[in-house]
Amino acid sequence: MVKKKKNKLGQQDILVLAAILHLGKTAYGVSIRQEIETKTGQKTSTATVYLALNRLQDRGFVKTRIGDAEPQRGGRRKCFYEVTRKGEAVFQDALASMMPMVETFAREWGLIS
Amino acid sequence: MGVDLVKKPPKIASLLLKVFAPAEMREFFLGDIEEEFQTYAAEKGKNRANRWFWKQTLNSFIPLIKLKVKENLELSPFRIIAFLLLTVPIIVTRPLKSSPDDYFSLYHLFWLLCSSFAIGFLCRLIISAGRFLTCVISGLDFCFSPDNPGRWTGTPVASDHCFDICFLRGRVSNFSLPSISS
Predict the structure, then answer these.
(1) Predicted structure pTM score
(2) ipTM for the complex?
(3) Tens digit of pLDDT for each residue in B127-155?
(4) A50, A59, A106, B145: which is deepest, by most CB within 10 A?
(5) With b meaning 16 or more CB within 10 Å and e meaning fewer, what string describes A30-57?
(6) Would you call B72 an interface residue with chain A, using a CB distance cutoff of 8 Å?
(7) Does A65 touch chain B (CB under 8 A)?
(8) Minimal Cβ distance to B60: which of A28, A45, A76
(9) At A76, which helix (H) or strand (E)?
(10) How many helices (H) and strands (E) does chain B have?
């Protein structure tokens, strides 16, 4: 169990980590933002996603891989993100600590079966 | 994807994003925004895409400022050099003075740290202004970087990325006009 205070995740961090894990190796700024918007219905700006990514990267929860430049992006390269083992462990911990509190209500209100 | 690349995002909004985006992620962030803009413009038309772009720009200010502040509080070579240039002469000359008031104290150290951060920040501002002016004077919207694979594939490289790479590696002289034929 990872229990240091600096390993605590905010809501945006959890959403971004979940999106990256869901997207796999194709996770980059645009796809992460779209994934969050589709799954949660929350409008998120690209800069907010980058703020969370920067925080996660600084703490070693995600690693980056630089892609090729594309004309559609004005000749700019893509930066792909992957969750590290440490990031996975912290994400698992965050969910595990949240579930007992949330699960009861989620079942009661029919949000999960 | 049949995306019409003639469509350009609003210039002022793009410039604002370029100025506010932190250097280390500027290329990726601007690329993502432009990619979404192109897709949006192809699907819903240029006017709606322009509105979307402006909305993204305005929504991006607070997160980008947070990132910029974070970036500027980190130690950079400029700050370390400025700190050494300010501190070393004082430490060397202080013992020569006889008055006890002249001893080097924590108070002095605090102000030296603040000044060196400020000087470091000013240096970065001057360099950014230099890059911007070079871009304006040369009139280059696109240029090729010697280190970018875009040079060989014919992919235009946006000036913000190119300037960063060229300045960082001291290869300003290697700038060349692009031959965007297709």
Answers:
(1) 0.64
(2) 0.85
(3) 766 666 665 565 554 343 333 333 322 33
(4) A50
(5) bbbbebbeeeeeeebbbbbbbbbbbbbb
(6) no
(7) no
(8) A45
(9) strand A76-83
(10) 7, 0
